[in-house]
Fold these 2 entries.
Entry 1:
Amino acid sequence: MNWFTLSLAGWRQRPLRTGVTAAGVGLAVAAWFSLLSFQAGYRDGMKNELDRLGAHILVVPKGCPYDAASIALHGASWPCYLPAAYLDEVRAAPGVTTAAPAFMTALHEGTSTNTVYVGVDENFLRLRPAWQIRGRFPQATNELLLGAEAARRRHWQVGQTVPLPGLTNATGLVSGILGPTHGAEDDFIYLRLADAQHLFAHPRQLTHILVRLADPNALDRAVTHLRGCYAGMDMNIVPLAHLFHTIQSLVNSTRLLLGCVAAVALLVAAAGVGNTILMAVAERTREIGVMRALGASRADIFRLFWWETMQVCLAGGTGGLAFAFLASRLLENWLRARLPFAPVDALIRWEWWAAAAGLAGAALVGSIAGFLPAWRAARLSPVLAMRSTGGDA
């Protein structure tokens, strides 16, 4: 039996105490893993969503830019509208290569499902070069382009004339089905811009305009021009790159606070582990004396208790990672309800580097917390330890 196996048997003799100690380490590691995973998942998800728009600038009615970006990405009814005449001024801005107008609205279908309609013209395709359409983009009156999930859920096929969900006595011809994009637009129903304006009784009005520049480095110049033009007082010009950095800075500002909470949790776990191992040393004083009398060196005793500490911490860390992963969906749903801008991609996902960082933190806790108890055990005199009346023989 080697010292590693002996240490394993040692802490398994007290399962309740060991379990409570390991649970403390596990909770600290779970918090650390969730923090790291959320930071990476939120940043990547937000960047992917903004990239899906295919635009550099989002022109929307006056209001909160975060809400406007979220509506444009995830689909909802807009509280106010832009005059369609503003489109000409947007297209006249320096560096603009594509200005794609859109009219979006959402209708309740059943108790909890929304049907999102998006009216667009062919300029929209310039922002979505990666789209794969089975059939064709809507060209004639009442033609529809369905998102992949919308078509699958309703079992609609190209060429079918279908009732429009949420609308009475309105039908459309499915001219095309969009390939999966793995975004919110998989649930959208696209139609011609003029059809959407007529269908929802908002002629010559838009909800937003997606703008793409010839040179992304000229973003500030284009934004300045749009904000200073005649229509600039009635439009909110949202540079998506700036929006990304602004939202990311808001997340980063809370990262320090959350990191401090995770660090405190690790310190509390280390104190609990150290206290548990010190109690084990006090209870096993005679056992230590017997081992020293049988030839165990001080290094052997130190190694024994140090290994016990590491095993408890690594076991707790592994359990904490499993708990964090299993509870990630619940935590993600809680976060989505409180974030100003929540991407549809997973916010907390399995990241090997974050798991490795969590286990490294558990190992660090074990190394620090186990040093003093192991050193104290190694310093015990064999004779005095044998005479001790406490602990196990």
Note: The mean pLDDT is 81.
Entry 2:
Amino acid sequence: MGDATHQSVASTLDLVGYNYFSYTYDSGHSSHPEWKMLGSETSSAVRSRGVYKTPTNKNILTDTDNQCSSYDNSVVSWGNSAESSYNEINKRNYMAGEFVWTGFDYIGEPTPYGWPAKSLYFGIVDTCGFPKDIYYFYQSKWSTKPMVHILPGTGLLELM
């Protein structure tokens, strides 16, 4: 929304979408408090179903096995974790909500790994239609349905 043309177009819309960066939400809202805003693409964390890499508090995208961690700790440079994106959107009362990039993994645009990877890893559902662990995070946030989903632990509790 940096230039006048983009802002002029946005001012004609009922709802203005922002992608990824929370600081742009605040600057857009400060400049145009009348805009109704939403996160049109959020998160951009990558994950493989059933793969758990530690440490959980570190971005892990360097392994040679072309697999991402399902702990929401594999994030591309322009994105945020699902939890971080959700919290950034929901602490701002002027944001209507968010759309996650992307719902399903798909063939093409292999990210974060190149060949021989064929698909991207952004989805909350894999290419076979199976929910990844992050699916249940969103279900717990976007639904009133009672639910519990347990991920494998890191072994830290047993050591304490």
Note: Helices lie at 4-11, 22-31, 82-90, 133-142, 156-159.
